[in-house]
From TrEMBL:
Function, as annotated: Binds together with bS18 to 16S ribosomal RNA.
Cited CDD domains: bS6_chloro_cyano
InterPro entries with a match to the protein in the record: Ribosomal_bS6, Ribosomal_bS6_sf, Ribosomal_S6_plastid/chlpt, Transl_elong_EF1B/ribsomal_bS6
Family designation: Belongs to the bacterial ribosomal protein bS6 family.
GO CC field: ribosome
Highest taxon listed in the record's lineage: Bacteria
Thylakoid listed as a keyword: no
Keywords: Ribonucleoprotein, Ribosomal protein, RNA-binding, rRNA-binding
Protein's recorded name: Small ribosomal subunit protein bS6
């Protein structure tokens, strides 16, 4: 299984109940597809860097989860077709090997010597 992070922006005019329903919808979609360790963080309403679909603000939601690669496409398709989602982005998080961690810890010690 791979680690993924999906960040999506909901319309700012949604009520709290509608936001919770949208979050649950995508969380359940992941769970039904076999995703594990789903961690959802509601980041709140923030001003967008630029206007998207005549919206200046958006409600940010971050989801971290473990899943197989075939889980991402159906969820993104549902987000693309949804009127409540303004933007979305999914990235695959890299697994840091134990050797890479050990090398990273040694570098600062060598730099000070």
């Amino acid at each position: 299984m791979n680690s993924y992070e999906t960040m999506y922006i909901l319309r700012p005019d949604l009520l709290d109940e509608q936001v919770n329903q949208a979050v649950e919808k995508y969380q359940n979609m992941l769970r039904d597809q076999g995703a594990q360790d789903i961690n959802v963080q509601l980041r709140g309403k923030h001003r967008l860097a630029y206007e998207i679909n005549k919206q200046r603000d958006g409600i940010y939601v971050q989801m971290n989860y473990q899943a197989k690669g075939n889980v991402v496409a159906p969820m993104e398709r549902a987000m693309r077709l949804s009127e409540e989602v303004i933007r979305y982005l999914t990235i695959k998080l890299e697994e840091v090997s134990t050797k890479a961690k050990a090398d990273a810890e040694e570098e600062p010690a060598e730099a000070t010597a």
